[in-house]
Amino acid sequence: MERSRVILHADMDAFFASVEQRDRPELRGRPVIVGATSARGVVAAASYEAREFGVQSAMPGFRARELCPGGVFLRSDMRKYARVSEQVQRVFEEFTDAVQPLALDEAFLDVTGSVALFGGVLPLARLLKRRVREETGLVVSVGVGPSKLVAKLACTLGKPDGLLIVPEHAVRPLLDPLPVRRLFGVGPVLAAELERAGFLSVGALATADVARLTRVVGARANELVALARGEDPRPVEAERAPKSYGEENTFERDVSARDVITAALTAHAEAVARRLRHDGYVARTITVKAKLGRARGQRLARTPVLGGEPLYPVVTRRTTLHLATDDGAEIAQVAVKCYDALGLAEPVRLLGVTASNLQQRAAEQLELFASNRRRALGPALDAIARRFGNDAVRRAVDSPEKLTPSLLKKRGE
């Protein structure tokens, strides 16, 4: 008989804000909001004191200030958060080598083979929480279940400072009363469609007539029914190959000046190329993303008092190269052409560059008459940056203002 999996989901409580409160005792007990320090910034993290006012991650800064005018707004310090994240990761590795980080502050752990070593699921989970606190002075919430879906839901439902274990026989009683929005892969739009069709809870999906559900969601019907029953075979992937590398920024003011746009695209292209080289990848597909400066309508309101957020259209353009590349100048050249092909007649508030369609650098096909000089430039710039810092040398463009630091750990940064 196959042994049931034991999957643990660990999520640091209000991670960025908690790090700041740990390091600055005068902030403890106060509503701390990390990010959103400029006009168009967004909230990277909010302490639980700030959440009591309705402030949430990814919320626009102006909305956070309206909700919590007495909040303490701090700039993100991604280097510091990354260092703490590495400490947490080392603690996780004390319990299993099957660790799948999702971001700086959360991870899945497959502890199926470790449970017996620690005397059971509960002693293991308690010890993990204690070790994180000992090493970092911070709190981690933990959920445990037979699948990723159940473990993550258990962790979320137990916050803050949570520890919730859901054995096989308790999966359906946990899932059935939850709203459909709680299911993995069900976003606001799909949730609204399901609710309009009468599927208001996870339990309703679990017992749904597949033919009827197919008329609502199409080919995803069987997948959703399985998820609603707690059936989630996804493994914990300790080493996941990246699918893409991207960089983007929101401008302080809408921009249309050619030199500013070119500078932003070039800076992003160089950053993407540096990360590609660091991880040993090259990319064939380059995509440019632009968010237009003029809002068209509003998103659904999150609160009845303040109404919905402005909805700014996003447009993209991509090009697939004949040969894959990790050269910043080439990626920048392609990105600028993609932007021109968009033919935008209005200013933009955000620009981004993404490289995808990846392959290992060692497997790339070399162009017969390619110059080795430009191929050698990227690694040389990388070596200088490693020794003297990322701003020691770069191509002759001004870096764009980055109002919102990436919430994900940048490889090689």
Overview of the molecule:
The chain has 413 residues and is of the alpha+beta class. It folds into three domains: 1-166, 2-Layer Sandwich (Alpha-Beta Plaits); 176-228, Orthogonal Bundle (DNA polymerase, domain 1), CATH 1.10.150; 244-388, Dna Ligase, domain 1 (2-Layer Sandwich). The protein is 37% helix and 21% strand. The strands form three sheets. Strands 5-6-1-7-8 form a five-stranded mixed β-sheet. α4 (78-92) runs antiparallel to α5 (121-136) and α12 (258-279) crosses α13. The chain starts with 6 loop residues before the first strand and ends in a 25-residue tail after the last helix. Residues 301-307 and 396-413 have low confidence and may be disordered.
Tell me the layout of helices and strands:
Layout: E1 7-12, H1 15-23, E2 32-35, E3 43-46, H2 48-51, H3 61-67, E4 72-74, H4 78-92, E5 99-103, E6 106-110, H5 121-136, E7 140-145, H6 148-158, E8 163-165, H7 171-175, H8 188-196, H9 202-206, H10 210-217, H11 221-228, E9 244-255, H12 258-279, E10 281-292, E11 314-325, H13 328-342, E12 348-360, H14 372-388
Parallel strand pairs: 2-4, 7-8
Antiparallel strand pairs: 1-6, 1-7, 2-3, 5-6, 9-12, 10-11, 10-12
Helix pairs in contact: 4-5, 12-13
